[in-house]
Amino acid sequence: MADEAPKLFEQCRVFVVCSQELPLETAEQLAAIIEEHGGDPSIHQSGPEKFDVIECTHIVSSTIQFPSYDYFSNALIPVVKPSWVHASLSKHKLANPRQHSPDPRLFLNDVVVTCGDIPEGDKDAIIGGVLAKGGLYSPRVTGMVTHLVDLTENSDKARMVKIKGMRVKIVLPHWFDDCLKLGHRIDERPYMLPDPEILRAGPDDPIRWSENKDVAGASTPAPSAMPTPGKLNQPSVFEGKSVMLSKDLGIGSHLQQSIEAVLTRGGCSMTRNVDEADWVVCRFRDGFVYRTASRLDKVVGNLAWLYYLMTFNTYTRPLSRPLHYPVSRTPIPGFAGLKISLSNYVGEARIYLENLIAASGAECTKTLRQENTHLITAHGTSEKCNAAKEWGLEVVNHLWLEDSYAKWKEQPVSDPRYTHFPSRTNLSDVVGQKMLDHDVLEENFFPSTDAEAEPVFLPQAMQTKDQNAIARPLAGKSDQEEAKDSEATHDTPQPTGKKPRRPSENKKLQTPVRSRLIPENKENETPSSTSSRKSKDAATARLHDLAPDLALYEKERKRVGGVIYGGRRKSDEDRVDMTKNQKKRRSAEPQDESDDEQMTDAKRQKRTRPPISMHLLITGYQKWVGHEKTEDADKRHLRELGIMVVQDARRCTHLAAPAILRTTKFVNALAYAPQIVSTEFITSCLKQDKLLNPSDFPLVDKAAETKFQFSLETAVGKAKANRNKLLNGFRVYCVEDIRGGFDAFKSIVETNGGECLLFRGRLALAKNSRREESDDEDSDMDGDEPGRNEVFLLSSVEPRHARLWPRFRQVAEDIKKTPRIVRVDWLLDIAMSQELRAAGDYEVTEEMVEAVDE
Question: pLDDT (tens digit, 9 = 90+) per residue, 36-90?
């Protein structure tokens, strides 16, 4: 029999990272798709850990704002948006990760462009620029296209867009020209046909500006007051983290106690040991704490960054906003003595630039005088701009300041990027989008003392050992010695130990009109140095030398009792030289060595993975509550036993729960008549490492059956007979803010064949229900059963809900239906028992509301 065709994601170990843009429910759907097509997914709500790098091939995330992004990026593991999964499926091959990167530096990653009647040279340049900055090109006008580049609305493609009413923005080529010159995406409205503003506006017409959200909460490195923490509608961003507040913050004991109280309430632990901290908060880019934390690859931010997390309860990388990272006591080389003034920047963007000038070591002046050296302006039309040109001052945009700060080196003002001002754009809109470069920071502020100071990709236990070795030589030094060391390392920057980036990232874009579209010095070009490359080679060589010890370490780790005192060393007399034995085997018996012995444990397990024997939906499993890593590991273990854990009730063949629950998962799954087992089944399978008979673990909960007046076994039998048509023809309405949520009750009604709608009291009810429109002969209901001529409203007895009841009764009577206002228990009891129940026992009245008020 021919071998089964390989599945698309068969060689992929995918980590799905949850965020505000990618909620848990969506992440579970993506994981199910990846699993279905042969992949091995796992879901991470706070981002994967660094030691998971050896297990991962792809990371799916809608943002780069998770703690270990830099680590995985340096390990050359692609981080892609969810669109990568769908694009790969549509193409039947893995899509290019670069075209689906969430990195904001690829500022055209949401653009799908097609070209109309424009010159061929401009067309090639635009396509090349869009592809280089993360966008896509389509030769035809399809539903995926977001922008049509054209000179007129009379072209064939433009007419097609108008006729079909497509949501495609028709823009002039000038928009791409300005975006690529600046290295940022600007507002396309001034460039849109049929009446582009850049062609009709006068030179003195005011230029619109909008509030910049990129600098919200990140406009100052030293906030004056502690913010009021926002309400937590989700798990705290500090949950499970260990935070260290450095002494150089210079805050009083009362403020420090207040900060620690907020962090502790969020599930965070405080520490005074930099080795134990996950996040380190400090003010300056010097001192033992800062350098040690940076060398150990901790998350290092300042007080403004910490306050931002407290306010918005959303993780953001300190490097993504310049003033969320500690500042330097010394100015940027070349910035001492500069006097800089600002023009045309407004709102918080102006405050951000004033603080960035101060952080760079220059002086920011409110007024422009002849002694000023630079004027930073958002556009080229103002009195200050005219005066600066007359006095011979340097007139640049804010990109010059941000690039100088990020690269810690004064950038030449002759670069066209810094002197380009789009005619109808206020550059305040793109302030604060520049990210700091870790390599530059390392070279200037925490250079490694040797190649071993940078952790290489070792097991977690060995990383800890190496990291402690870094901290020990520094711990006993005085401030004087530490300052000497700092001066010495600044004079001779030492290399890093990180892997080199892809060569393609450093290639310059070339198109037929390169000089017009693409400046010579690209903003996002990844800096690299000769010393850095040498260090990376040294780290690789060191890892190669450690390979025998790593292999022995892994072997001894599997012993009963574990590794004693770190295992044997290479110099031990009784150590077996595995390298020599392996060489002898290769030369003497080249055909006897199995390929499986060279595979990692993950690959070996993957090749022997059994077929899926059950799709299991799990609810209420307490072992996994608050233990994300345990849950991921157990799900992988269950999959190795032939059990696929699913989140969709429609796919489940088995349901596991500790008791009869009224959760959405349990109630919805019951309608599909799965085999219901106790969660002891999961525990036993994991403990015995084999697939057990689920019939030996039936769910028995007599107390709940008595309470809810139904039999679980009978309900499953009725669910098989109902075939998800129990509520066929029922129309159920629900008040907007019902306890439990409208979406939960909507899914229950629709799972059982009914229709659920939101009722706000402003709309009339539809006249025809599904029952009246359907001729389904398979329906088990007849005209005498409850619900035939009734409409239902799920409500509580709260006064705000009772105000909607008269309107509901009125519109129900208008369509000649009997209104029934019932508690949610009516729906839950029907769904749990899988039999219809009269609404009379569940109805609520105005008398009940009055009783509640009394």
Answer: 888 889 888 777 776 666 678 999 998 888 888 877 887 888 999 998 898 888 8
Look at residues 526, 509, 425 and name the one whose alpha carbon lies nearest to residue 179. 425
State pLDDT tens for residues 626-637.
788 888 889 989
Q: What are phi and psi of 144, to 5 degrees?
A: -80, -20
Regarding pTM above 0.85, the answer is no
- Asked if 70 and 438 count as a contact pair (C-beta separation under 8 A), the reply is yes
| Helix pair 578-588, 547-557: axis angle to 10 deg | 100
E strands, 383-477, in order? 394-396
Residue 164 token pair: 């079909």
- 211-226 b/e with 16+ CB inside 10 Å = b? ebebbbbbbbbeeeeb
One-letter identity of residue 511: T
**Helix segments in 410-529, DSSP class H:** 438-445, 460-475, 479-491, 514-517
Question: CA dihedral in degrees (593, 599, 602, 608; nearest 10)?
Answer: -40
279 contacts 298 by C-beta, under 8 angstroms: yes
Return the SS3 of 136: strand
Full strand arrangement of the beta sheet holding 374-377: 363-365, 339-343, 374-377, 394-396
The 10 Å CB-count burial string (b at 16+, else e) for 475-484 is eeeeeeeeee
Domains and CATH numbers, the chain: 13-100 (3.40.50.10190), 112-200 (3.40.50.10190), 242-324 (3.40.50.10190), 339-433 (3.40.50.10190), 440-545 (no CATH), 610-720 (3.40.50.10190), 725-853 (3.40.50.10190)
554 close to 577: Cβ distance less than 8 angstroms:
no
Question: What would the pLDDT profile of 785-810 be if each residue is shown by its tens digit?
Answer: 555 688 899 998 888 888 888 888 88
The rounded distance, in Å, linking the Cα atoms of 536 and 830 is: 65
CB 557 within 8 A of CB 518: no
Q: How many CB atoms lie within 10 A of CB 716?
A: 17
Task: Report yes or no: 202 and 180 within 8 Å, Cβ to Cβ.
Answer: no
